[in-house]
Design a protein that fits this description.
Strand order of the largest sheet: 2-1-3-6-7
CATH architecture of the largest domain: 3-Layer(aba) Sandwich
Largest sheet: 5 strands, parallel
Radius of gyration: 30 Å
Strand content: 15-25%
Shape: elongated
CATH superfamily of the largest domain: P-loop containing nucleotide triphosphate hydrolases
Number of domains: 3
Length: 445
């Protein structure tokens, strides 16, 4: 039925209302003061607070203010023997659903209690349905023509009501963070933060501070206290990309955070409680690492409650062309050009390539090719497929006699044309600063 907290400094009133609620199937809690009431709200899920406007020397308005600061989901009803329009307006402004004058009529009280809890249940159902619809919309945005990716999305849909850790495995560039975002969007935590970090890009000490925060003076340069990502993600989801690169010392801290819901900032003595769902990802074989002793097996068990494996792009060739067109459509929207497209031979070239860099490589190549050859329709010759240290593309034949400086100049001009001669955007595509671009333009005359 619902948990109801009665806050009144008069014992007889608390007991009377408590008995009424219990008889109707509700679970009552009692508090004689504000501190006791807030402790109860922190310790139990409370659906409704019924509070006197005068609680000893304190005010029920102060309790409503404290509940508002805590962002609790509990509704509230105020009761008083000193009813005035001003206090009623103030109570309603602070979120009170209703206002009753003592002496309380039992039938009237129960009618109000049922109404407020029915309204709360309806609002939560609307919120849940909106969350489900938003999550499904995000799932539909994922290109998944292949059976392998359909199976991945089926798993995501099956667990959307379950608040459990997930370990996503797969090669670099397969879209692990995209799946993590969908897991968050389809969960009950969807309105809370989604926080992501790549664990392989930071040295151990900096990663420690990023994850768990630090206190002032924890190390040289720590001039202020700083919240870590666990605290920033409190109530939501923390995505740990490339978790296999975390050092053994930090693995122990991660394990405690998962087991106990507790973190300790760098240099601090105080433990902070956090409520975070962990979604981790890796391109490494964590089971083999656990056997070798380089990854804690107990942490692996905690992370790997539900494993999801993303196949490499060459293992799901049905997704290559839908993904390519997806990226073309995004460029159309970004550039305001509906004429961009891929020729039949360009599509054939994309379909035949093995994509060692997976989805991320495909996206980069589509964007780079349209930057170099503004189209509108790319041919196979204009699809520039590159891997580290290698570029495979059929360059125009007259370029075989060009110098490096001439090739660079032609490339810069093509990127400028593709970005409407916006130097800031062009320098970002070229991977150089704007000042460097301007210097090169000056050299080119």
């Amino acid at each position: 039925m619902g948990n109801v907290l009665i806050v009144d400094d008069e014992f007889s009133i608390r007991k009377t209302i408590s008995l009424l609620l219990k008889r109707e199937g509700f679970t009552p809690f009692e508090a004689a003061g504000i501190d006791e009431a807030l402790n109860c709200v922190d310790a139990h899920p409370v659906d409704l607070v019924i509070t006197d406007l005068r609680i000893g020397a304190d005010s029920g308005i102060h309790l409503l203010e404290a509940l508002q600061q805590r962002a609790t989901a509990a509704e509230s009803i105020v009761m008083t023997a000193y009813g005035t329009i001003e206090t009623a307006v103030e109570a309603m402004r602070l979120g009170a659903y209703d206002y009753l004058t003592k002496p309380i009529n039992p039938d009237e009280l129960m009618l109000r209690v049922r109404k407020v809890l029915e309204r709360k249940a309806l609002r939560e159902e609307v919120k849940r349905l909106r969350m489900v619809l938003d999550g499904r919309e995000q799932m539909r945005s994922i290109v998944a023509a292949s059976a392998a990716m359909q199976q991945v999305l089926e798993v995501v849909e099956r667990i959307q009501e379950r608040d459990i850790p997930v370990l996503i495995s797969g090669e670099t560039g397969t879209g692990k963070e995209v799946i993590a975002q969908v897991l968050h969007a389809t969960s009950a935590r969807s309105e809370q933060p989604f926080v992501a970090i790549n664990c392989c890009t930071l040295p151990e000490d900096l990663l420690d501070s990023e994850l768990f925060g630090h206190v002032k003076g924890a190390y040289t340069g720590a001039d202020t206290e700083r919240q870590g990502l666990f605290q920033q993600a409190d109530g939501g989801t923390l995505f740990l990309d490339e978790v296999g690169d975390v050092s053994p010392r930090l693995q122990a801290k991660l394990l405690r955070a998962l087991q106990e819901g507790e973190i300790r900032p760098v240099g601090g003595n105080r433990v902070h409680r956090v409520d975070v769902r962990i979604v981790a990802a890796t391109n490494r074989d964590l089971e083999r690492m656990a056997e070798e002793g380089s990854f804690r097996s107990d942490l692996l068990f905690r992370l790997n409650v539900l494993p999801i494996h993303l196949p490499a792009l060459h293992q799901r060739r049905e997704d290559i062309l839908p993904l390519a067109w997806h990226f073309v459509h995004r460029l159309r929207e970004r550039l305001g050009r509906d004429d961009l497209g891929l020729s039949a031979d360009a599509q054939e070239k994309l379909q035949q390539y093995n994509w060692p860099g997976n989805v991320r490589q495909l996206e980069n190549i589509i964007e780079r090719s349209f930057a170099l050859f503004p189209g509108p329709v790319l041919s196979a010759q204009e699809i520039i497929i590159s891997t580290p240290g290698k570029v495979t593309a059929a360059e125009p034949q007259d370029e075989t006699t060009l110098s490096l400086a001439e090739i660079e100049a032609r490339h810069i001009r093509a990127v400028l044309r593709a970005n409407d001669h916006n130097q800031v955007a062009a320098s970002r595509v070229l991977g150089i600063s704007r000042s460097t671009l301007r210097r090169k333009l000056s050299q080119m005359g």
